[in-house]
Amino acid sequence: VQLVESGGGLAQTGGSLRLSCAASGFASNDYAIGWLRQAPGKGREGVACVSMRDGRVYYADSVKGRFTISRDNAKNTVYLQMNSLNAEDAAVYYCVADRLREACMNVPTSAPYPYDYWGQGTQVTVSS
User: Fold this and answer.
1) For 34, left (φ over 0), alpha (ψ -120 to 50), or beta?
2) Which of 20, 76, 98, 118 has the fewest CB within 10 Å, making it most exposed?
3) CA–CA dist 101, 112 (Å, integer)
4) What is the pLDDT confidence band of residue 107, given thresholds at 50, 70 and 90?
5) CB-CB contact of 16 with 79 (8 Å)
6) pLDDT exceeds cutoff 90 at 128
7) pLDDT tens digits for 12-26?
8) How far is it, in rounded angstroms, from Cα 28 to Cα 66?
9) Is 84 helix (H, G, I), strand (E, B) or coil?
10) CB–CB of 91/82 below 8 Å?
């Protein structure tokens, strides 16, 4: 079982990045797959989540209107398009997956939740 993130890196304030999360080794099309992030010295924060089965999406208020989560079931991949980046978006971004679609409901509130699978994380840095 693997969740492999890619697409992190350095962006300027106001710039964009697109993260990818490629899932393998499990029936990902039945899962909820989302993104959490953690900045140095801060707690883990929910970012966005999508139900692979029906496409329902969930966002934290801090990213609504700037970030878009999408899925490609044929590729077992979830994307996070991040626009209008600012310093507060700098963090390590983790892809998570859970067999329960309802797990996505924890993302907007950053409620702790024991997701079934985690990726290794990808660093997003935002420069001014």
Assistant:
1) beta
2) 118
3) 16
4) very high
5) no
6) no
7) 999 999 999 999 998
8) 26
9) coil
10) no
